[in-house]
TrEMBL record:
<dbReference type="GO" id="GO:0008780">
    <property type="term" value="F:acyl-[acyl-carrier-protein]-UDP-N-acetylglucosamine O-acyltransferase activity"/>
</dbReference>
<dbReference type="Pfam" id="PF00132">
    <property type="entry name" value="Hexapep"/>
</dbReference>
<keyword id="KW-0012">Acyltransferase</keyword>
<protein>
    <submittedName>
        <fullName>UDP-N-acetylglucosamine acyltransferase</fullName>
    </submittedName>
</protein>
<keyword id="KW-0443">Lipid metabolism</keyword>
<dbReference type="Pfam" id="PF13720">
    <property type="entry name" value="Acetyltransf_11"/>
</dbReference>
<keyword id="KW-0444">Lipid biosynthesis</keyword>
<dbReference type="InterPro" id="IPR011004">
    <property type="entry name" value="Trimer_LpxA-like_sf"/>
</dbReference>
<dbReference type="GO" id="GO:0009245">
    <property type="term" value="P:lipid A biosynthetic process"/>
</dbReference>
<feature type="domain" description="UDP N-acetylglucosamine O-acyltransferase C-terminal">
    <location>
        <begin position="165"/>
        <end position="201"/>
    </location>
</feature>
<dbReference type="InterPro" id="IPR001451">
    <property type="entry name" value="Hexapep"/>
</dbReference>
<keyword id="KW-0808">Transferase</keyword>
<dbReference type="InterPro" id="IPR010137">
    <property type="entry name" value="Lipid_A_LpxA"/>
</dbReference>
<keyword id="KW-0441">Lipid A biosynthesis</keyword>
<dbReference type="GO" id="GO:0016020">
    <property type="term" value="C:membrane"/>
</dbReference>
<dbReference type="InterPro" id="IPR029098">
    <property type="entry name" value="Acetyltransf_C"/>
</dbReference>
Amino acid sequence: MDATRVHETAFVGPGVALGAGVVVGPFAVLLGPATVGDHVWVGPGVHLGGAPEMSSERRNRAWDGDLDHHAVVVGEHTVLRDGVVVHHGSWRPTTIGSHCQLFSRAYVAHDVVVGDRVTLSAGVSIGGHATVRDGANLGLNVSVHQRRSVGALAMVGMGTPVTRDVPPFVQAYGSPVRVHALNAVGLRRAGVDDDDLGRLAGLLRADGVAGIAGVAGVESGPGGTGWHDQTIRRELHWWHTLPDRMPARLAGAPAVVPS
């Protein structure tokens, strides 16, 4: 039941470590260094590895035995559907978390970090150095600009160009990308209770630029007891300490005109 199966037409190069129960489909190409966790499903035509798409990178290094560069890492129980492409990192491993779903033709560029339980729908493209946090859901053909971030349990609507950072726990869509509401369905599925949903809604209304208001309101709730959902506290702390943050604005908020 835990046997790893590699189709006869697939190519698994040197430096690729496959976990237990991995399935590698027809014409998939896996180039080292790469680590694929237990029970990962690699569909037909998937390409893991290969040089980052950067003009300074040597194109053929993965084919001539050069393994002295950053890897691709895929966590356990992740599904990579037909034609998914994930490139090696240039300064850190390109990482896909556990229990993720990457649907047909999703593209993950060099140095991207994708968290656990993330859904990348068909045709999603993630630019280099970007971050997608745990539980985020990106709709069909979403494009994330390099070095931008999508917060945990955020839902990004189909076709959205993510040229600004999307805060955690929200619905964001449109061009330019705007924050429209809490992702209440996703939050409830993740076990967030109604009390914390109400608090998040209040923070969202209070902050028309960053999408979710200041971390001071998160660290201590009524009576100074703090929020009981540690995931919320952790992710809002991440959001407000994110370096070079360029937040998506709340829908309906006026544009900020540089002076």
